């Protein structure tokens, strides 16, 4: 770990001390501080109106916040600001993103479902067909219907007339999906790490039959399975982040390594959430104990932006599109 990464982790640790979980649908208490520090501009160059820093810095922040049991709009806001900066647009207020808008049944309006944090946002960057556009969520003709995911994070429905959609020239929908896949993998990996550390502490200090739970072979094996899942997700994430930062990608489509990182993180999330509750027993399902702040997010986030099956099918299509001789390189990226 570099000193720069350590500084970012120390910053997150300081910001998240004694931060309580917000009510369902609400922003975390530290969000104004994240905005004041201009962290929503990390990963976008200063020339494009951002705060500078690399995509790896943004990945570190998203992962660290999730590991501290904080859910925030950082990934969506940073991705939206990057899209706006790349299109030479500058907007004030919170921006969020949606990878799909479609015709709303029975009306002439367009609809984007499960939009993260839309009720708190001023702007929406949305993919419609083969193009990406901007919607002013404060416009009178735009309707935001509140909803939440399993973890209580806002996932709202946004309906709007196509006339409210201002198309952005660059980059395209593939680039937005690429970055969101990477940041969602980072958040999942962070939550996996948080669940693992909480479980490791529990089985190391809780005693049964006069000895710590971890002394039992079945418990030690379960914890080892969680650690392996965490390492797999971490390695896939770091590989994808390295490729993203070196710029060796096709800007039109998600890089295979990023899709793989997202798939591995989703699979690891399932394993870790299951094992964490098995090793905690009854205390793990109580509201007072913090395990649910990790596992409900793992269950909710693993299927966002596409299920594991859908992403695996997408990876297969990427491999096939690369030609017969490149299939092995794509699948092992």
From TrEMBL:
One of its GO terms (molecular function) is flavin adenine dinucleotide binding. Residues 185-296 form the Acyl-CoA dehydrogenase/oxidase C-terminal domain. Its cofactor is FAD. The keyword rRNA-binding does not apply. Keywords: FAD, Flavoprotein, Oxidoreductase. The keyword Oxidoreductase applies. Belongs to the acyl-CoA dehydrogenase family. PANTHER family: ACYL-COA DEHYDROGENASE, ACYL-COA DEHYDROGENASE FADE28. This is Acyl-CoA dehydrogenase/oxidase C-terminal domain-containing protein. It comes from Antrihabitans stalactiti.
């Amino acid at each position: 770990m570099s000193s720069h990464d350590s500084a970012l982790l120390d910053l997150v640790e300081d910001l998240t001390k004694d931060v309580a979980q917000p009510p369902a649908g609400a922003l975390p208490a530290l969000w104004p501080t994240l905005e004041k520090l201009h962290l929503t501009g990390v990963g976008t160059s200063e020339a494009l109106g951002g705060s500078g820093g690399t995509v790896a810095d943004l990945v570190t922040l998203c992962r660290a916040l999730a590991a501290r049991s904080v859910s925030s709009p950082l990934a969506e806001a940073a991705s939206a600001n990057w899209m706006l900066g790349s299109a030479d647009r500058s907007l004030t207020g919170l921006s969020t993103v949606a990878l799909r808008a479609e015709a709303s049944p029975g009306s002439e309006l367009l609809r984007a479902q499960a939009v993260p944090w839309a009720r708190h946002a001023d702007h929406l960057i949305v993919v419609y067909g083969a193009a990406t556009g901007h919607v002013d969520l404060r416009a009178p003709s735009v309707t935001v219907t509140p909803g939440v995911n399993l973890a209580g994070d806002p996932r709202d429905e946004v309906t709007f007339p196509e006339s409210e959609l201002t198309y952005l020239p660059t980059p395209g929908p593939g680039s937005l999906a690429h970055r969101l896949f990477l940041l969602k993998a980072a958040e999942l990996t962070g939550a996996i790490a948080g669940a693992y550390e909480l479980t490791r502490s529990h089985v190391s200090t809780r005693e049964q039959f006069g000895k710590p739970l971890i002394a039992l072979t079945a418990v030690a094996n379960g914890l080892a399975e969680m650690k392996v899942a965490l390492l797999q997700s971490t390695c896939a994430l770091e590989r994808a982040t390295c490729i993203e930062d070196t710029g060796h990608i096709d800007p039109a489509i998600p890089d295979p390594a990023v899709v793989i990182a997202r798939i591995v993180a989703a699979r690891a999330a399932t394993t870790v959430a299951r094992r964490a509750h098995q090793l905690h027993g009854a205390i793990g399902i109580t509201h007072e104990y913090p395990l649910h702040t990790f596992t409900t997010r793992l269950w909710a986030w693993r299927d966002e932006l596409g299920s594991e099956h859908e992403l695996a099918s997408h990876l297969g299509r990427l491999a096939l599109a690369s030609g017969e001789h490149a299939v092995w390189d794509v699948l092992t990226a």
